[in-house]
Amino acid sequence: MEQQNLDALLKDMDLDEKIGQLLQLSNNFYEEEVVMTGPAMQLGIGEKEIFRAGSVLSVFGAEKIKAIQKTYMEKQPHHIPLLFMADIINGYKTIFPIPLAQGCSFNPKLIQECARIAAKEATVAGLHVTFSPMADLVRDARWGRVMESTGEDSFLNEQMVTAMVEGYQGGEKGAELASKGSIAACVKHFAAYGAAEAGRDYNNVELSERTLRDDYLPAYQAGVDAGCALMMTSFNTLNHIPATGNKWLMRDILRREMDFSGVLISDWAAIEELIYHGIASNKEEASKLAMEAGVDIDMVSGCYINHIAKLIADNGIAEQLLDESVMRILQLKNKLGLFENPYKDADEIESKNMILCQEHRERAKIAATETIVLLKNEESILPLSKKKRIAFIGPYVEEERLYGAWSLLGENKDTVTVRTGVENVYRGSSDETIFCRGSSLLDPNEILYGFNGIVNAHNEQSNEVLLTEAIRTAEKADLIVLFLGEHAYHTGEGGSRGDITLPNCQMQLFREISKVNDNIVTVIFAGRPLDLRKIEKNSKAILYAWFPGSEGGNAIADLLFGEKYPSAKLSMSFPYSVGQIPVYYGGFSTGRVFNGDRANRFQSTYQDIPNEPLYPFGYGITYTEFQYDAVALSKNILQKRDLIHHENVIDIIEASVILTNMGERMGVEIVQLYICDIHGSVSRPARRLKGFQRVMLQPGERKKVTFEITEKMLRFYDINMNYVSEAGEFRVFIGGDSITMNESRFVLE
Ligand code: BGC
Known about the structure:
This protein is of the alpha/beta class. Helices cover about 30% and strands about 20% of the residues. It is globular and about 75 Å long.
C-alpha cells in the first residue's frame, strides 16, 4: 500500500477503531471462547474490542493463526489484518543455544544464520513479529535474564544485536520485511533493564547518564541502525522514572537522538504498572503518561482501550498523538505486506516439512559447538580417549530440557540428550552401565514455578539410592564425566537467585565422586555464570555448556571426544563469589589500586575474596595452544580527523599480532582487541573491547592478525557530555581474553 492509502485509511477510521489498533491482547482472547466473567471482564473488553485489537501475542501454528486472521478480518471494520507476535528467543522449534551462549561464539555471521532459521520457522507457522533480540547489557549473574542477553560488553552486544535483527528481518534496514521468511524484530527492553538493582528482576535501575550512554545504549542503537521494526519498553525505573512513562527516554533519546521511527510497544502490562511504580494514581493517568512518552502498543494491560477516548475528550491528550501511534502500527502491517497477504508465510504443509528439518538441526549443532566454553583442561584430560573406561554421571545425562527458560515451543522429545549424543560417538568397552543419574536435578524440597506449571523432584528415586549407584560406577571407571547444572527455571524471567551455586544434592554427588575418583571432567548446564569455586578445585576439566538447545547432546559429545574442538570465549565474567557482583572486565581504577600487599589495609580490595573474577570475559581455551607475538603498530601517532587536510581521509593505525598454533591440533582462536584511554576529562575504564576476529590455524601455522584503529573508536561522553575523543595516550591490547597484558601504546593528536 502507498502512504497515501494509509493516510486515507487512517482518516476513515473512527476513534474506537483507532484506539483498538493500540491494544494487544493475549492468545486466550482468540483461542478460547472468552467468558466475559474472566480476563475479558477484568480488562473491560468485549467482542467489539477483540475484533478491533491491533495485535495478539503467543498464538502458535499456521492453521490456528490463519483461522483467527480470517474471522478477525471479517469483523474488523476496515478489514485491517491482525498482527501476530511472540517471543521467539533462541529458535522456534529448532532450538539454538541461549543468547548468553550465542554471545560466546563471537561469531555474528553464525548468529545471523540462527536468527534466520528461527524467522523461517516462526513465519511459516504464521508469526509476524518476534520479541527479540534482547539488547540489555548485563553485569549481574544473579539476574535470571542474563541468559537472554549476549553479555556484559557493549561492543559484542552491538555485533550480536545487529546480526539478529538482520537475520530476522532478512537484510539490512529491514528492507525485506514482506519477503518470505522474514519476521519483524522487536529490540528490548528499552532501557537498561539489565542493571536491575541487586540482580532482582523488575527492580529499580540507578545509572549515571554517562554509563547509560557509554555502555548501555549502544546495543539498542545497533538494533535501530539495523532497522529493527519495533522496540519494547522496559519494566524498570531508570533513575526514579519508570521507562514506560519516561518521555525523555522515549521521545528525546530513542526517537530523536537515536532516530527510531518504528513501533514502540510496552512490556507486559507495563503501562498499568506505572500505578504501582507510584507515578500514576489510576489507569487513566498511566495511559496519559505512556501516550505522552510515545508508547504505541499497550501489551495486555487494557489501559489504552478503556481510557484514551476519555483522555482525548477531556483534552488530556491530543488526538494527534493517537493518530501518530496508529499510523506507525499501520505502517508496520504494510511493511510486512499484510494488506496484500494477511496470512504472510503461514503454511501448514510447509511447517511440517521445514520446522526441525535436518538442515536446521545441523545449524543448531554447529551453534552449540561454537558456544560451549572450555574453562579448564588439566593434563589435557580432554579430549577423552575412547580407550578409557568412562562413566557418565549426573542429572543432566538424560535431561531433555536443554533449551533454556524462554523456548516456548521447544519440546523435550526433540532434544538430543547427552546420553544419545555420547552413544552416537562412543560405545563403552563392556556392557557395564556407564550412564547413571547420581542425584536429582533439584533438591528434594525445592519447588520451581515455571512459565507453565511447577517443577520439583518429588517423583525421583531417593538421592541416597542414586548416589550409591553413582559411587559404585565411579569406582570402576578410569574417568568420570559429570553432567551438572541449574534448572532452566532457575533462570529467565523471574529467575533471580541470591545463591548462584549448584543445588545441594548435586554438590553432594560431586563431593562423593571426587572422593573415589579424581579424574573428573565436569560439564555444566546453566543460564548464567555460576559460582564454580568448588567445582573448579576438584575437576580436571570444565566444559560450560549453558543451555545448548536441540542438538546439545551431539555437540557436547563431539567436543568431549575431540571430533570437534571448543572455540568459544566467555561473554560474561564468572564471579569468584556472589559477593563480587557486579564484576565485569575493564572496570575503573580507584585512587587506591590493590597491589597485592594485604599488610597495607587502605587499598581497594576485599579481605576475604580476590578482586578478579574466577574467569574473565573473553576467556576460553581449546585443545591446542596459541602464542601471541608482541603487538605491532603501523605508527604511534593517530591524527584526529579535523587535523587532516582532506576532510574525508580518516587516519588509521594498524595494530597487529602474529598468532601461532603451538599445538598438535587445529583450532580457532578468537583474537580480541582492547583499548584503554589512559587519561581523560573523566575517569576512563581500564579497557574496552574494540574488535575481535575468529582465526583458524592448523598445527604449527602462523598468521598475522590485523585490526584498524580509528579516532571514532576512541569516543566517549566527556566531562561536558559531548561524544568526542580526547587527545592523549592510549594502550592497545591484543590477546585471547580481557586480561591479556600484550600491549603497545599510541598517541592521539
Ligand atoms: C517480558 C518480555 C516479553 C513479554 C511478552 C514480558 O514479561 O519481559 O521480554 O517479550 O513478556 O511475552
